[in-house]
Amino acid sequence: MEVQWVLVVHGVVTAMVVLSFLCGQWPIFRGTFIEKINYFITFGAYDYFLRFVAVICGSRARDAILTIEHYCCDRPNPILQMLYLAIIGITYFFVIKSSFRYFPGYYVSEFHKYASMLAVGVGVLLFLLTSFSDPGTVKADNVPQYLAAYPYDEVIYSEKECSTCKIPKPARSKHCGICGRCVARFDHHCGWMNNCIGEKNTRYFMAFLLWHFLLCLYGTIILGLIVVGQMKERRIVYILTVYYGVENSYSGLFPHVVQWLLGSHNTQVLLIVFLFLVTLLLAGFFAYHTHLCMTNTTTNETFKWQDYISWKKKINEAKASAAALKASLQSMNGEGKAIKHSKWRAFFRKSPLQYEEEVIKNNIYDQGIIKNLLEILFPLSERSSFHHQKYT
Ligand SMILES: [Zn+2]
Ligand SMILES: [Zn+2]
């Protein structure tokens, strides 16, 4: 019994940590301990670690760690690319080692041996394609075309020059500090790809996300079918109920089946859990980016819009409080009777805060779902019209 409690506590703690890590910054968790755990994992723990190193090993050791961090996070480097290849390689190795001998099985045919190889191969190819493709580098020779293709909206983009590249900055572009170049329709710099995601390779990036989501889902399902097929072939339920006298019900069989699974198929169970979690993560990530593609917004622009909206709201608040102050001054100057009336009137009147202008996000680049998706699939810079454009 005690072991089961340890497992339950372990499960709850793991779920909490994962939830805090992934969703801790969501507004609904503001001020809760979920947000605090998120802060600790994403920032606090590293800060404590640096202070700890400084106290124990001196400030030189701390500076060494900061140098390593600078190399890993602020400079182009293949560490995460290697990690991706290691993760997919090791996972597939364990799949081959633990499961290929069950092909063909009760529910799965030998076809999946080859299908899985092909699926993993395509996944790696998409990874390489995204990593080594041009994200849409803006250079002196193509900047006039980019300036013409992406007009300034004068809200989040206005005419500017890149202080590093010394060329005008087209709307929607951003200078990537890690790669040291300006990228058109900049989405984000992806550490896993060691490349920027921009105008020309967002399509490969999306294909990568979708393919890996499907790949993990495929793995989860096939491994699940192998395990369930083994249960059928070995007549586990029959043996448990007839030979061991276990009650033939879900609640009666469940602990014994779990015990059998962990005893004879532990690698597959671990792989199923791992692949399932990655499937969920990728589904969320793909859904988020699909939403961005459909509304023709980049990740970079979501931050810009957030800043713009919170700045606008602050201005509105200032306007509203100025109006409230004016109203209260006016009522103080009025006669006693007038005050009585105005109090009642004020009660039924809208408060000055309700006069706030609605802050609207007017995204001029959003041209409807179909055109937006076509812009991802066929980047503007690869269309023939692009080369005839002149910026005026
Ligand atoms: Zn630049
Ligand atoms: Zn970059």
From TrEMBL:
Sorted UniProt keywords: Acyltransferase, Membrane, Transferase, Transmembrane, Transmembrane helix
Membrane-spanning segments: 6-28, 81-102, 114-132, 209-229, 236-257, 269-288
Bilayer topology term: Multi-pass membrane protein
Domain of life: Eukaryota
Listed EC numbers: 2.3.1.225
Location within or outside the cell: Membrane
Entry text on domains: The DHHC domain is required for palmitoyltransferase activity.
PANTHER family per UniProt: PROTEIN S-ACYLTRANSFERASE 17-RELATED (PTHR22883:SF286), ZINC FINGER DHHC DOMAIN CONTAINING PROTEIN (PTHR22883)
Full protein name: S-acyltransferase
Organism: Dioscorea cayennensis subsp. rotundata
Organism classification: Eukaryota, Viridiplantae, Streptophyta, Embryophyta, Tracheophyta
